[in-house]
Specification:
The complex is a heterodimer of chains A (about 325) and B (about 230).
Chain A lengths: L7 H7 L4 H25 L1 H35 L5 E5 L5 H11 L5 E7 L1 H12 L16 E6 L6 H12 L4 E6 L1 H43 L1 H9 L4 H44 L11 H29 L6
Antiparallel strand pairs in A: 1-3, 1-4, 2-3
Chain B lengths: L1 E9 L5 E10 L4 E5 L6 H8 L7 E6 L2 E2 L8 H5 L2 E4 L11 H12 L3 H14 L15 H13 L5 E5 L7 H16 L3 E5 L3 H6 L3 E6 L2 E6 L4 H7 L1
Parallel strand pairs in B: 3-8, 3-9, 6-7, 7-8
Antiparallel strand pairs in B: 1-2, 1-4, 4-5, 9-10
Helix pairs in contact in B: 3-4, 3-5, 4-5
Classes of the chains: A alpha+beta (about 325), B alpha/beta (about 230).
């Protein structure tokens, strides 16, 4: 029996709201869902705190190693200009012979400049810098050789050319021993590169585990909401509508975990620089550790958000589709 | 509005739930769907709401052939059908207002429009005073009415009800049916699945009767006697 078969109901659907109104409603909805999912984290404090800490701590290790590499680079940066050759003269070489030797090598085409440190001056410097001070006065003779610092020209400071120059200088009869500073510099750089590779390797492993951990946390959250999701699907919710709060949860985990990592790294740098101060005091140097810059912090948090989002995205793709409403 | 054309549904394992079912429900029509448990009522509703696909035959809802609907289109088809369940399917951790507002929120209505429509829908089911309550604070009949308000708030052209009076006493059942009649008056096509034959007997509506998956009767309630005798 057909009652009034007008379709007033259908017509009404069309003038629900204008485009602008819908767009604003969409933004408001996003904001509400973002705040709502933060509330969901708050309601399960134990799970949330655990996940956030895991994320934060996992990110702390690669971030700290990054700080280490950054400092190593800063140190080698300071020494970049120091590709100089140190020549220790034989103890038997007299002061005047040494002066002549300096004159002679400064005429070499490969040599840019030469600095002469006499044995007495070397002893004075050592007294001043080492902290042994008075004790050295008890020495009967100066055990230090005179030293010549040779700075090669730019062309000759390449590793091979510098090594050649070193050999040439070593063959001079006044020279006891020669040392090329470039060697330890290249070693330091190689070590920094090695550590950087290790950092990348560890970071990749830790980041994958973060993605998996967040994916699992979100999976549990989805399964908890299974019934509500089925109901939402029944009344016509799209997957993207249903998944949005879970994606926001992932992003919140990222933000909070990233903040934890920033705090941990800052704490570690503080801790390290305290022991570094003791060390640098011994060496009369005033090197201070470089911590995370504010752009470093932002990119760390941004990276954590990216990890959180991808973890929840993987979970959401797989599990929300699997939940289907049943008639019961 | 709803059209079944030679629809068969066989579940894995060989159970035949629907056997060559043909019927159609016009816009603004109201009908009952009846039969024993296991006669295929639920299967019929599942096919209409895209929870399952027929083994063969075609189902049309609001002029759309459901066999051509992709996974991504399913939500949009479901928005054209208001569904009411025996167990209400309400979200227990949300207020009555939020439950009724859900379809509008999903469709992206503005807050103002949502508020207006939810209040109107709740007024129609006489629950305006329970706006801020949670579902567990309501009686069974009230929860069912919240479900009805939610099914109708986005003004779908079709209303499907699966045992809407299942847990209610006769007086409340009649109230619920009266509500359906009111919406039917506004032009909504209504299909009510029920085994409450007493209720159907009192109301002279078209009745579709299923028996072992086959549509054995399509018309007024006279044919019901046969079903009753079998019971």
């Amino acid at each position: 029996m057909t009652r009034k078969a007008n379709n007033g109901a259908k017509q009404d659907n069309k003038h629900a709201a204008g485009f602008l109104g819908r767009f604003i409603a969409y933004l408001v909805r996003h904001a509400q869902q973002a705040v709502g999912s933060l509330g969901d984290l708050w309601r399960n404090p134990f799970t949330s705190v655990m996940t956030i800490l895991v994320l934060g701590i996992s990110l702390t290790l690669p971030a700290t190693l990054h700080v280490f590499v950054k400092n190593a680079n800063a140190i080698s940066q300071q020494w970049k200009s120091a590709s100089e050759i140190t020549l220790f003269l034989k103890l038997s070489v007299s002061e005047s012979n040494a002066q002549q030797f300096v004159q002679r090598i400064s005429l070499y085409p490969e040599v840019a400049s030469v600095e002469y440190i006499s044995a007495t001056q070397a002893l004075d410097d050592f007294k001043h810098n080492s902290g042994f001070g008075q004790a050295l006065d008890y020495l009967s003779a100066n055990p230090l050789p005179a030293t010549v610092l040779v700075t090669p020209t730019n062309r000759a400071s390449q590793v091979e050319a510098a090594t050649e120059l070193l050999q040439k200088l070593q063959s001079e009869r006044e020279v006891e021993q020669g040392k090329l500073d470039l060697e330890w510099l290249t070693r330091l750089q190689a070590m920094a590169t090695l550590i950087e590779n290790v950092v990348i390797g560890i970071a990749v492993l830790l980041c994958s585990s973060i993605v998996l951990i967040i994916g699992n946390t979100i999976r549990l959250a989805i399964l908890n909401e299974r019934e509500a999701i089925a109901v939402m699907k029944l009344v016509g919710a799209t997957d993207s509508f249903i998944q949005r709060p879970f994606l926001y949860s992932g992003a919140w985990y990222g933000i909070l975990g990233g903040m934890v990592a920033v705090l941990c790294v800052a704490g570690l740098v503080e801790y390290f620089s305290m022991s570094l101060i003791e060390l640098t005091d011994l060496y009369q140097s005033d090197y201070t550790l470089i911590g995370l810059s504010s752009s470093d912090m932002l990119s760390l948090i941004g990276f954590a958000i990216l990890l959180g989002l991808s973890g929840s995205y993987i979970s959401v793709r797989k599990h929300i589709r699997a939940i289907e409403p049943t008639a019961e | 509005m709803i059209r079944f054309n030679q629809v068969n549904k066989t579940y894995p394992g060989g159970f035949v739930a629907l056997n060559n079912v043909n019927f159609s429900l016009a816009a603004g029509e109201m009908a009952f769907l009846t039969g024993h448990s296991g006669a295929g009522k639920s299967t019929l509703l599942k096919l209409m709401s895209l929870m399952e696909k027929p083994t063969s035959g075609t189902v049309h809802i609001n002029g759309v052939d459901l066999s051509k609907v992709t996974y991504k289109q399913i939500p949009f088809i479901r928005r054209g059908i208001g569904m009411i369940f025996q167990n209400h399917n309400l979200l227990m951790d949300r207020t009555v207002f939020d439950n009724v507002a859900l379809p509008l929120v999903i469709e992206g209505f503005s807050h103002k429009e949502t508020k207006k429509r939810v209040e109107a829908a709740l007024e129609k089911v006489h629950l305006s005073s329970k706006l801020r309550c949670f579902p567990h604070m309501l009686s069974g009949g009230e929860q069912q009415r919240v479900g009805i308000a939610r099914a109708l708030v986005n003004k779908p052209p079709i209303l499907l009800a699966d045992e809407p009076t299942g847990n209610l006493d006769p007086k409340l059942s009649l109230e619920i049916i009266k509500l359906f009649e009111e919406f039917n008056d506004l032009g909504v096509a209504v299909l009510i699945a029920t085994h409450d034959l007493g209720l159907i007997a009192r109301l002279k509506y078209r009745t579709l009767t299923l028996k072992q998956g086959a549509m054995i009767n399509d018309g007024l309630m006279e044919g019901l006697q046969g079903v009753h005798d079998d019971a």
